[in-house]
Amino acid sequence: MELETRYNPLETEDKLYKFWLDNKFFRSIPDHRPPYCIVIPPPNVTGVLHMGHMLNNTIQDIMMRRARMQGKNACWVPGTDHASIATEAKVVAKLKAEGIDKSQLTREEFLKHAWIWKEKHGGIILEQLKKLGASCDWDRTTFTMDDDYSESVINVFIDLHKKGLIYRGVRMVNWDPQALTAVSDEEVIYKELNSKLYYVRYQIENSDKFVTIATTRPETILGDTAVCVHPEDDRYAHLKGKRIIIPLVKRSVPLIFDEYVDREFGTGALKVTPAHDINDYNLGLKYNLETIDIFNDNGTLNEKALLYTGKDRFEVRKLIVEDLQQNGHIVKIEEYVNKVGFSERTDAVIEPKLSVQWFLKMKDISKPALDTILNKDIKLHPEKYINTYRHWMENVKDWCISRQLWWGHRIPAYYGSDGSVVVAKSADEALSEFQKKNPAVTAAQIRQDEDVLDTWFSSWLWPISVFKGLTNPGNDDIKYYYPTNTLVTAPEILFFWVARMIIAGYEYLNEKPFHEVYLTGIVRDKQGRKMSKSLGNSPDPIELIEKYGADGVRIGMMLCSPAGNDLLFDENLSEQGRNFANKIWNAYRLLKSWKVDESASQPEYAKVSVDWFSNKLQESIIQIDDHFEKFRISEALMSTYLLFWDDFSAWYLEMIKPAYQAPIDEKTYNATLDFFETLLGLLHPFMPFITEELWQNIKQRGEKESIMFSKWPEIKEFDKNLLIDFETCKEILSNIRTIRKDKNLPQKNEMLLFINKNADALADSLYCILSKLGNLSEISHVQEKVEGAASFLVKTTEYYLPLGNLINVEEEIQKLSEELDYAKKFLQSVETKLANESFVKNAPAKVVEMEQKKKSDAESKIKTIQESLDALKR
After folding, report:
1. What is residue 800's DSSP assignment?
2. Is the pLDDT reported for residue 458 higher than 80?
3. Could you tell me if residue 358 is inside a domain?
4. Among 120, 133, 302, 728, which residue has the least CB neighbours within 10 Å?
5. Other residues' Cβ atoms within 10 Å of the Cβ of residue 100
């Protein structure tokens, strides 16, 4: 088949992806082969492809495609997460744009809108992944609110409740006033802000004296129910038994003494607001203080605040400071840097809030998940994250699993009119339980909990539930694919998701969910900034693919992505990836342009070239496999890249290339096609499209044949000495080319090469390569210096290129004289260093050894230059 002059990725990629899908090449069902399974970190159903997805899924696809070529039954399970907070926010915004307020709808009406939105937008990101070349088993696509999956989630809640691990209680939670729901500790991002520290006077009851407190949140003064000082703080010892008047609202509260107070912070006196600070809440429990919740769920003040009712908390901060100043309560205001918690989902400032929520006890259930990482039964790559993981797991808190939303898995708890609670799978089951205690109870008298479960409470079952491991225990899929092989994800959800999946795996299948976890870095721009829409520094991945091709973008991502480290993405890397694709395309076109002479015998230089590249290929395969086994995916790509670009294209093809318009012998040509096909196999995991296109073109293939099922190259022994010798050959050629360039001697002009042969000299078998690539008419051995020749050293062997009348002698003498002067100064600096007894005595032995080598090399170079000068002057 005739190839186009230029590679057109857009046409090729769509055509080939359809070919793969039509033939169900990505489909996996249990069989006799060893499985290799990855479950995709399910992107939010609201999502569109961003650069983080590109990196994560490129890595997964590389691993899957290599596994297929290794003969494994590769199963990559795709899917999406229902993402309660994000999806509900999207639907609420859509309805608002249509003039509909969520509060005007019943739960059922709202969910109808949500499902319509999900069906319309929910598959976008998966379709975009296909553009990237993702080889997922799309028949296994799972959504975390599929019927079967939802059943698993509800059953797990019921089971953990029966085990006494899930409980309901009033606790201080992280409240998101924008999403109107509680969020877990792990979903709070702390940022350093330039704030203000307000010093406020509180009057002592029945006195004209004051106690001054310091606060960053003056709006919460309206909820104060005590002032606290340290029992050993002499400044306040005389005030024991006194009461304090809260400014503006004139509330009388006790002055309490507790060692919790930091005497060095502010004035040493602490305002206590039990409803709006976790530490104050604990003090409130300890001293039986009144709890006054002054905030509505949306962050506005309620009637319990007595002032500023209905106004936003940040507006109130400004207003109350003005009122406090007017009433003489502000002592001073200082600039202050503090950490403020923000919702990871909405970026709203978190409000500590007392709330009735459902919690999962984490201490005991988490232990197996900690042990398996510390024992390296599950391996983290890179290992530096083990300590982070251990810190989280050793300090784990109970997990708040309820969310005040409608979109998600509704908590299977039912309440009777007397406040009693029954946890059951359905309303009918709940009614039956209520009627066991009171047969007169009717369905109308019970109601289901309004809240839904935290999204992570469903996604922690992902590796189990994508195979229906809980609803159909012991089925063929779960027995064959579980535990899965590798999880590829981001370090920031190591606790959110990875740890919890491990917990669920041991709790329900008594087995880890995966063998290894590969943690990617964060994609940043070339200035090191995290990519974001607000900064405008995040390119659209689909636009990149349209511009550079999927293979080009994949290469661009992987060229800068060391495991676990942040990567600095530059669009130029995608351009480099596209250029590499063009290099592969053009190398193949060059091959196919050669005429083959079936009767021609193989020249010696071609035989040696084939032998060398065969060994070089084996060395590289070992190196590439080693990188893969150690999860150094970027390094595996770089080794493959250099093998093709440098060793194959720059060296091997030049070595075997026939003379202009001359044919190539069949033996060399066939060997070269075989090499090219092997290289395509090594490149395929990284560049699936162009490798498939060229693999199909090399020879006639069957209708259902694909490179993805071709055999991954096997490791064979190689001749290390030959490769070492060839590196010497390359160095000699490099010197010859340098001399030609320096002396303006065209490559077309033949030259002689004389070798003062010794043990380090180039093997005779490689002379044919030197002759061809160096355009040498003759290579001879000599015992003495060659007069009038340019010389150079490789290792300890001297090589001479007679220049005859090819150069301007005066110019050459001047040039060599300058080189000699520089070399002598360099030698002098090294000798000065080595003459310093203190340096020789105190420097590491390797450093001294290196300086001595520099001295020896400089002396050899000076000798060679001097001899060249002497020869020219004769």
Report:
1. E
2. yes
3. no
4. 120
5. 15
Q: What is the pLDDT of residues 58-109, one digit of tens each?
A: 999 999 999 999 999 999 999 999 999 889 989 999 999 999 999 899 999 9
- Contacts of 291 by beta carbon, 8 Å cutoff, 6+ apart: 225, 274, 275, 281, 284, 354
The DSSP code for 28 is -
Determine if residue 64 is left, alpha or beta; phi over 0 gives left, psi from -120 to 50 gives alpha, anything else beta: alpha
- Is residue 416, in this structure, part of any structural domain at all? no
Residue ending a domain, among 348, 363, 398, is 348
Same domain membership, residue 80 and residue 30: yes
120 with 19, same domain?
yes
With cut-offs at 50, 70 and 90, classify the pLDDT of residue 50. Answer: confident
pLDDT at 213 over 80: yes
pLDDT in tens, 404-425: 999 999 999 999 988 899 999 9
Which of 429, 426, 427, 431 is CA-nearest to residue 441?
A: 431
Question: Is the predicted pLDDT of residue 279 greater than 70, yes or no?
Answer: yes
Over 90: is that where the pLDDT of 841 sits?
A: no
Determine contact, residues 517/380, Cβ cutoff 8 Å.
Answer: yes
Q: How far apart are CA 834 and CA 839, in angstroms?
A: 7
- Two tokens at 304? 């319990």
Answer yes or no: do 313 and 212 share one domain: yes
Kindly state whether residues 342 and 211 are assigned to the same domain. yes
Q: Answer whether residue 454 is part of any domain.
A: no
Three-class DSSP labels, 667-701: HHHHHHHHHHHHHHHHHCCCCHHHHHHHHHHHCCC
Of the three residues 695, 718, 741, the one that is the final residue of a domain is 718
| Distances, alpha carbon 285 to alpha carbons 270, 273, 274, in Å | 16, 12, 8
Q: For residue 105, what are the domain limits?
A: 9-155+460-520
Q: State whether 768 and 697 are in the same domain.
A: no
Residue with tokens 């203000």: 196
Give 208's contacts (C-beta < 8 A, 6+ positions apart). none
CA distances from 127 to 79, 131, 317, 527 (A): 11, 7, 47, 31
For residue 507, what is the domain's CATH number? 3.40.50.620
Per-chain mean pLDDT for the chain: 93
Residues of the chain with pLDDT > 70, as a percent, come to 98
Pair 582, 692 in one domain: yes
Q: What total number of domains does the chain contain?
A: 4
In a domain, 452, yes or no: no
Q: Whole-angstrom Cα distance, residue 86 to residue 46?
A: 7
CA 244 to chain centre: 54
Largest CA distance in the chain: 124
The CATH number for 666's domain is 1.10.730.10
Query: Do 760 and 838 fall into the same domain?
Result: yes
pLDDT-derived band of residue 627, with 50, 70 and 90 as boundaries? very high
Using a pLDDT cut of 90, give the percent of the chain over it.
Answer: 78
Same domain for 735 and 697 = no
How far the first Cα of the chain sits from its last, in Å, is 63
Of all residues in the chain, what percent are helix, strand and coil, respectively (each to 5)? Answer: 50, 20, 35
What would the pLDDT profile of 472-521 be if each residue is shown by its tens digit? 999 999 999 999 999 999 998 999 999 999 999 999 999 999 999 999 98
| pLDDT for position 652 | 97
Name every residue whose Cβ is closer than 8 Å to that of residue 124 and which is 6 or more positions away in sequence: 47, 48
Question: What is the Cα–Cα distance from 681 to 679, expressed in whole angstroms?
Answer: 5
* Structure confidence at residue 562 as a pLDDT band (50, 70, 90): low
As a whole number, mean pLDDT of residues 819-826 equals: 92
Which structure tokens are listed for 859? 């002396």
CATH of residue 234's domain is 3.90.740.10
SS (H, E, C) 474-509: CCHHHHHHCCEEEEEECHHHHHHHHHHHHHHHHHHC
What is the pTM assigned to this prediction? Answer: 0.84
The count of other CB atoms within 10 Å of the CB of residue 588 is: 21
